[in-house]
Amino acid sequence: MIAILSAYIKQIILVVLFATFLELLLPNNSMQRFVRVILGLFIMLAVLNPVLEIINTQWGDRAAAVSAGAGQAADILRKSRDLADEQSRLAQEVYRHDVAKQVRALAMAVDGVADARATVELVETADKRLTGAIKRVTVYITPGRTADGRNIEPITVKPHEAADSKEEIEPQIKAKIIRIVTELYQLRPAQIEVKRMN
């Protein structure tokens, strides 16, 4: 530290001596005022030079910190986008699950439905993101006891019709489920499918 201070003082002394020597060489005329101003600026520059070096060093350190921080900022920004995408995906899953539970409850309220389950398919964008709009609802039902507790008469099936009858649901039940779901969710009837639960 002492060596730096002594070099600094020597530099100031040399600049002052140089300015005095130049002033002695100049004749006494109107140019002498301008030369004195310029020599004064050189002396001030010599005095302020260490301060300017300290300021430049601090700005250089800050610039390096900012450039290092820019890489971290890009990483943070990427992570925040990934987190937002994951949060959106989870929200869509919760939404899909809740709509399926609501549709199940609506189907269970219809007379002639003993059990129900629903699946909901959402609309996807071109980049495979879900939008939240309902694309299709499939309701699986098991015919049985009605909502007011009456039993439904069993259907007798002839042996050669056994395969076809399992897929059939009473048209009134099917129509009622489709009507309720379309009215509640503002869907087209073509977006709702009612099937018999296996």
UniProtKB/TrEMBL annotation:
What keywords tag this UniProt record? Answer: Membrane, Transmembrane, Transmembrane helix
Entry's transmembrane regions: 7-27, 33-52
What Pfam family is a match for this entry? Spore_III_AF
InterPro entries assigned to the protein according to its UniProt record, in alphabetical order: Spore_III_AF (IPR014245)
Under NCBIfam families, the record lists: spore_III_AF (TIGR02896)
Annotated protein name in UniProt? Stage III sporulation protein AF
Q: Which organism is it from?
A: Thermosinus carboxydivorans Nor1
Lineage of source species = Bacteria, Bacillati, Bacillota, Negativicutes, Selenomonadales
